[in-house]
Structures are given as C-alpha cells and as structure tokens.
Amino acid sequence: MESELAALVPIAVLWSAAGIVADGLPRLDRARALRRRTGWLLALTLTGLGLTATALAAGLTSAGDTPLDRTAAGLTLAAAPALVVAVCTVRRTRRLRAGTRAFATAPGTPAPHGLRAAAAHPLIGLPVQVTALATLPPALSATGLDLAAGAGPAVTVGGLVVVAIGVRHALRHSRLAERALPAAPAPAASAVSARATGPLHV
C-alpha cells in the first residue's frame, strides 16, 4: 500500500497542478505571464506523462499481484486522456509558447486576444483536467479510503463534471475568439464615406 501511495500521489498532484495552470492561462492579460505559465504547463504535463507512462509500463512488465500491477491498474482510466494530452495538448501548448516568443522583448505588452483564445482551446485545458480527475480515485484509494461503495454515483458525477468542464472551455474559447476578430466598419460610417467621396469620382 505504501509503495502504491508513493507512486500514485505524486502523479495525481502533478496532473492536478497542471490542470490548475491550464485553467488559468486564458485569464492572463500580459504576454510575459502567458509565456511563463505556458512553460510551467509544458513542464508539468511532460513530467506527468513520463511518470504515468513509467508506472503503466512497469505494471505491464511485472507478473502477479504486485504493487506495480495495482498502481498500473489504478492508472488505467487515466491512460486515454493522458494519450490525448501527449498527442494534442503538448503540441498546442508548444505552439502557444512559440506565439508568445514575439513579445519577449516587451514584457509589459498585453496578451492579444488571439493568444488568449488559443490558450482557452478545449484541447489544452480539458484533457489535462480529465487526466487529473482520473488519477484522483486511485490515489485516494491508496490512502486507505474505500471508494467501492460509491463507485456508481461517482462515475455519474465524474461524467457530469467532465461535460461541464468541456462546455466551460468551449464557451470561453468562443468568447475570446470573437474578441480576436477584426472589428467590422460601422455601416453608417461606410455610407457617409461613400457619399462624401462620390462627387470626387469622374
């Protein structure tokens, strides 16, 4: 039990910290802060991916009912969202960090809405937070809590939480993406301009 706890708790803490950092990225209004937090997110997700993959691989190579097997079994649910993090989130986070590099020489520059919209994309925050949620039950079980009795309701609540998180990310991304669009000229101003310049045309 102690060896499972030593393996599962750090993984759950890492993913939870990554989820918190990812959730706060769109709220940053300075390019320098966005670049710094994006670096934190990359470090946390890559470390979490490395530890999760190591634990799963160790469980596959061991035989019998060992702590390694139980640790890997506990992380089975987190394997799918962690794979999405590895395929999608890491790539998008690297692109976001590359986008903030243009503002490195001007630390006080406000973060453009386009970068904040990219930071709010559901494929950045959602897979990380779902992975964090998936690592919590095995970590709590390793501490001695009996979660088997409430497994059914917990799955339902967990599914609703995932849907709510996804909707929240989608709405926030849409709102910031709309702000990033160039403002259309006012129709009245365009008509006045056309009437004013009309007599100038021969």
Characterization of this structure:
It contains 8 helices and no strands. It has one domain (2-183). The relative contact order is 0.15. Mean pLDDT is 82; it is low at 188-202. It has helices spanning 2-24, 31-61, 67-74, 76-100, 113-119, 122-142, 151-180, 187-197. The radius of gyration is 23 Å and the shape is elongated. It is mainly α and 202 residues long.
SSE layout:
Layout: H1 2-24, H2 31-61, H3 67-74, H4 76-100, H5 113-119, H6 122-142, H7 151-180, H8 187-197
The separation of the N and C termini measures 89 Å
Average pLDDT number: 82
Please indicate the count of domains: 1
Given helix and strand content, the structural type is mainly alpha
Main beta-sheet annotation:
none
- Helix and strand pattern: HHHHHHHH
Q: Spans of 5+ residues with little confidence (pLDDT < 50)?
A: 188-202
Q: Over all CA atoms, what is the radius of gyration? A: 23 Å
Number of extended strands: 0
Task: Give the overall form.
Answer: elongated
**Helical residue percent?**
over 70%
Report the β-strand fraction as a percent range. Answer: under 5%
- Summed up, the helix count is 8
